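step 4 of 6: structure.
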Amino acid sequence: MTNSPPVTLDDVRDAAAQIKGVAHRTPVLRSRTLDALVGAEVFLKCENFQRVGAFKFRGAYNTASRLAPEQAVKGIAAYSSGNHAQAVALAARELGTTAVILMPQDTPRSKMDATAGYGAEIVTYDRYNGDRVAIGEALAADRGLALIPPYEHPHVIAGQGTAALELIEEVGHLDALVVPVGGGGLIAGSATAAKALDTGIHVIGVEPEAGDDTKRSLEAGRRVSIPVPRTIADGQAAGIPGELTFSINQRLVDEIALVTDDQIREAMRMAFERLKIVIEPSGATALAALLSGRIHRIPARVGVIISGGNIDARRFAELCGT
Amino acid sequence: MTNSPPVTLDDVRDAAAQIKGVAHRTPVLRSRTLDALVGAEVFLKCENFQRVGAFKFRGAYNTASRLAPEQAVKGIAAYSSGNHAQAVALAARELGTTAVILMPQDTPRSKMDATAGYGAEIVTYDRYNGDRVAIGEALAADRGLALIPPYEHPHVIAGQGTAALELIEEVGHLDALVVPVGGGGLIAGSATAAKALDTGIHVIGVEPEAGDDTKRSLEAGRRVSIPVPRTIADGQAAGIPGELTFSINQRLVDEIALVTDDQIREAMRMAFERLKIVIEPSGATALAALLSGRIHRIPARVGVIISGGNIDARRFAELCGT
């Protein structure tokens, strides 16, 4: 037994080397308009421009590419209706192997098609009568596949941390880093990298108001479960933090801010009209917290992870068109 | 009298030096998805990320910043309901002087507000009973202002050419350059730079089908006037090419492609969903021509100017939300 942290800055650096040339080094966007609105220098790390349109590819590829060759040829598996599904599918294709993705039966056709478009096999289940973790594990065991979880894995967390690593390498010291929180993998990796590189940095997680399981858990000092959240931020609809991610976030996250669906919509609209970029609801929560005043003391230099941009034009029109 | 061209590569280089540090050097976007769809290597020069959200700032600032100091202090003027209005307003503010912008009475409130937001005075006129050029010239003469036309000026054209200059400097040889055509200033500047830097390059202009005045004019060998076009590409609703721009384009433009409003919408939607960027209708016509097959022989390496991104979320929802 040891007290060394499960993921370190060295792990994130190793992940950065592992994904180099396969994942994009995404741009850092600046905007005078945004700086004026927020009253700070804001640096947006744009994972909406990542492959598959979200940060998830970093962790999926870092994990899949480290499998033993005899395991890799047998294929990989994941359970996800969202960006992790496409990330694992693309990672498998890049590695010349196959992926099987377990998705709820009622997953929108466009998301199934996108995942199948990367060459993955889709297996569906009934989300009201099945436990995706149990079904996913059984499927993987049955077919001899390596299951890549969406956040509960050190290689996944280290991979997700590479976005913050790139950001700080590029822009230097930041007073605060604001990161969306779902299962907690992105912020666990981000905080691991940021706190090691820049000890004074304040790490702020952002959850949708209806999905405040990590905030409650940090306050309670233990993992708290909430009913499945109803929010437009579908990538952050976790009902309980991960065990591994929570152990990291308990140590490294300074604060959780909450945003309403209206504040998320406003941030998406602002990004569209002023920054000319597309952000999905979950990807916009950190920006929403900054713009809506839900972060109380905003320091001089603030990094923000824009975690994804997968939303179709029709859904954007529904959410932001009025 | 001389036969030397009214705008040369040296003029474009001078403009690039003049706007350096004030205008953005905009990013060049690549996309594997786009390359696969088009069957070529495509390089998108993203002027939607330019200041004021469009290439227009390049020409406006290049022109305004070259005024004699005694003229500059008296202020500048422009007639425009679109991106040129905001470009001239911001150029004036950057130069510490004032701008008066002549706009049709029925200009959308949001565009008037954006222009006023840069500190400009707005003067309105009745577009059905007034000639904007005559009113603009009278206003400028009356108040002692320097009128900056939207395209009929060598400094404006040279400024607009800096986007193509930056693109070719960054990515090297291109087989073709595809550029939206309205009054013809952007393509005149682009073609001037491109043909001088890269003699074999094929310069293709793109107009909305309903606004094909430049195509007709090039075919006729003289400037042809058409009725005011009805198209969603409001930045390309010119009824006749400029005199100066036409003289340049007649010499340097190889081909004009036409696109329908539906093809423009499809390109905007594709840019939104796959590239995660916002493009206004006029800004998307060059991309639309590539995607829709309206350009017949697409060579291996193609540059595309994405000329602007000024569209609000509500209008985008109307055009692309179904």
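step 5 of 6: annotate
 - DSSP finds 15 helices and ten strands in chain A.
 - The first strand of chain A starts at residue 28 and ends at 29.
step 6 of 6: archive
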